[in-house]
Amino acid sequence: MTQIPRREFLKAGTAAIAGATLSALGLGSITASAEGVAFEKQVFVYTCPVCGKQFSDFEKLKAHFTGNHKELDLPKTVTFIINQVEYDVFVEDHWTLREALVRAIGLTGNAKQMCDRGGCGSCTVLIDGRPALACTTLAVECDGKQIETSEGIAADPEYRPLLEAYVRNDTAQCGYCTPAQFTMAKYILSKYDLNPTEEQIRTELSGNICRCGTYARHVKAIMEAAAEMRGGQ
Ligand code: FES
Ligand code: FES
């Protein structure tokens, strides 16, 4: 049997954990290897809400809809500013923000369908800088609003220490709650000027339920990221 040197085994193990954490965050555009975490430019797509066909821009989607789904009324257009990029998207009046993120933009990180009734926090995004539940917020209410998701936070170089702390502390088990916890982590760091106490972190995360019991890992990751972002103090 081929023996794998312990050092290589540990490197491969770390890469696998990093890959699992990033994939749990819904971060297909960020990859992990034994050498570390690599960022690639994120490509967004416009998805037809009826047939799921994807397009590179809104005008092409509009032309597709009017040409291929003539029997249907053109859906409402709203403008989201998601992770600092502006998007015009089709939404139905009854769609929640969670549905719009998945069906109109193709973002799956924070758009987890867990309880779908405001009880678990797994769909938490930041709307105009404040935490909000995407499953109980109507998409049409978010017209013109700034929305931040785990994908945008993870791609922000300023929050790289947070991403690395999340990977290092193996915060994702099944991964369902992780993007929302990660999004809350950014909110906590910014609300407490990079100096939250463990108690403040626990209180802020109390609405985010983790069935896998990773709570202590989030507190540790946020404390470590805060120290690094303060300059190691
Ligand atoms: S899925 Fe939104 S709070 Fe549970
Ligand atoms: S990691 Fe499984 S629900 Fe939190």
What does this structure look like?
With 233 residues, the protein is of the alpha+beta class. It has a domain of 32 residues. The chain contains eight helices and nine strands. The strands form three sheets. A five-stranded mixed sheet has the order 6-5-9-7-8, with helices on both faces. The chain has a two-stranded antiparallel ribbon with strand order 1-2. The protein has a two-stranded antiparallel ribbon with strand order 3-4. Helix 5 packs antiparallel against helix 8. The termini are far apart. The site of one FE2/S2 (inorganic) cluster has 11 residues, from loops.
Short description:
By secondary structure, the protein is α+β, with helices and mostly antiparallel strands. It is 39% helix and 16% strand.
Overall, the morphology is: elongated
Radius of gyration: 19 Å
Each distinct ligand: FE2/S2 (inorganic) cluster
| Main beta-sheet annotation | 5 strands, mixed
Ends apart, CA distance between termini: 47 Å
Continuous helix count: 8
Task: Write out the strand line-up for the largest beta sheet, numbering strands in chain order.
Answer: 6-5-9-7-8
SSE string: HEEEEHEEHEEEHHHHH
Beta-strand content bin: 15-25%
* Alpha-beta content class: alpha+beta
Write the layout of secondary structure elements.
Blueprint lengths: L5 H19 L5 E4 L2 E4 L6 E2 L6 E2 L2 H11 L7 E7 L2 E7 L5 H9 L18 E4 L2 E4 L12 E3 L1 H6 L4 H9 L9 H14 L6 H7 L10 H15 L4
Parallel strand pairs: 5-9
Antiparallel strand pairs: 1-2, 3-4, 5-6, 7-8, 7-9
Helix pairs in contact: 5-8
The structure holds FE2/S2 (inorganic) cluster (FES) (2 copies).
